[in-house]
Amino acid sequence: MGRLAEQLIDHLRLEGLHALLIEMGKERWSIAWVAYGLATAFHETGAAMQPVRESPRVSEAWRKKNLRYWPWYGRGYPQTTWETNYRKMDKRLGLNGTLIANPDRMLEHRIAALTMVYGMAEGLFSGRKLGTYLPVELGTRAQFVAARPIINSTDRDELVAGYAMSFQAALVAGGWA
User: Fold this and answer.
1) Are 94 and 125 in contact (CB under 8 A)?
2) Sign of torsion over alpha carbons 49, 55, 58, 62
3) Beta carbons of 36 and 11 less than 8 angstroms apart
4) Full residue range of the structural domain in which residue 66 is found
5) Looking at the predicted structure, is the pLDDT value of residue 1 above 60?
6) Which of 2, 89, 4 lies closest to 51 in space, CA to CA?
7) CB of 91 within 8 A of CB of 126?
8) Which of 16-20, 61-65, 106-110 is predicted with the least confidence, judged by mean pLDDT?
9) Cis link prior to 71 (omega < 30° from 0)?
10) Separation CA 100–CA 127 (nearest Å)
11) 7 pLDDT exceeds 80?
12) Mean pLDDT throughout 55-68?
């Protein structure tokens, strides 16, 4: 794993990994699904493996002025955007409107992890589901490339697939399967 392993050792990243693995495990995600979910979180959070805000180095005033979907800009592990997606997640997680009233709740580990798990497995982001693209066994690089539209069209699909292959190898070595 090399560089990827070195970037994942600090406490905060481990905390994020733990939150994701707990929820993925509860839903009995296959090894290919877990690898792809972790790869997506790694990519979408800029390797932070923490629920983060879109454009973390800019102010809220900048976001309000420049992001057409403000206040529903990217947050969490998968960078959930748009009001419709926040509403879907609020309903799916039984949050009774609290996510709509406070979109920053998407920065809470459990909410962010569940959003990723349900959003990817049930196709709540794009209508595309993990089960359409990935097997219950080990995934191939081509399958991981093909899965990118679950989150974000084909943007950086090869890069995310490479991360997924690395995570999958680590999961196999760690006995996840």
Assistant:
1) no
2) negative
3) no
4) 3-173
5) no
6) 89
7) no
8) 61-65
9) yes
10) 21
11) no
12) 86
- The proportion of the chain whose per-residue pLDDT surpasses 70, expressed as a percent, equals 94
User: CA 48 from chain center: how many Å?
Assistant: 12
Residue with tokens 């994020």: 16
Domain count, the chain: 1
Q: CA–CA separation, 114 vs 105, rounded Å?
A: 12
Residue 105 phi/psi, 5-degree rounding, is: -60, -20
Contact (Cβ atoms closer than 8 angstroms) between residue 45 and residue 116? no
Please check whether residue 151 is in contact with residue 44, taking contact to mean a CB–CB distance below 8 angstroms.
yes
Mean pLDDT of the chain: 92
Residue indicated by tokens 């949050």: 95
The enclosing domain of 25 has a CATH number of: 1.10.530.10
Q: Which two tokens stand for residue 139?
A: 């995934």
What single letter denotes the amino acid at residue 52? Answer: V
β-partners of residue 52 are 76
**For residues 47-73, average pLDDT:** 89
Specify whether the CB–CB gap between 143 and 36 falls below 8 A: no
Q: For residues 152 and 48, is the Cβ–Cβ distance under 8 A?
A: no
CA–CA separation, 43 vs 50, rounded Å? 11
